[in-house]
Amino acid sequence: MMRGWVYSGELGTDELAQLIERLPKRVILSWELARLDFPKGLELRDAGCAFNREAEIRWEKIAERRCRVWVLSDSERNDLPDTLKSVDGDWEISECETRLINLEDKRFAPQFDLYPVANRPEAQLMCRVFYRDKIATFVSPREVKTDAQESEC
Fold this sequence. Notes:
Elements: E1 2-3, E2 5-12, H1 13-21, E3 27-32, E4 35-37, E5 47-51, E6 55-63, E7 66-73, E8 85-86, E9 91-99, E10 124-132, E11 135-145
Antiparallel strand pairs: 1-9, 2-7, 2-8, 3-4, 3-5, 5-6, 6-7, 9-10, 10-11
């Protein structure tokens, strides 16, 4: 297993938006009670995540214009706002790849027709499993892929 880094704290929505904007080649999944989808731009709803191959930023609104934020990273981060602190523990990560549901399957009714990046109704999701002191704690998305390889977490 590889070493991982986890940071947590509170940010204002403007600070969170700036942090997400600095994440290159990102995919954003954002949701609220009535909607869950991959917005075209940066839309901070009640909760969501932005991810790329190296990191994930998760948020949940806790007050008007305030969010609880988690950063799950493959490398140590020195570029985060001061309010995001390293979470104690011995963090390790492993990689897994999983198949996403087929959006054309009639048993499901997602609010989007295609997965981002793949631009298809079927895709794979590369993830990192974060272990804190050997206990699986987070599954963090990293990349939407188009290959049809089957893997298991």
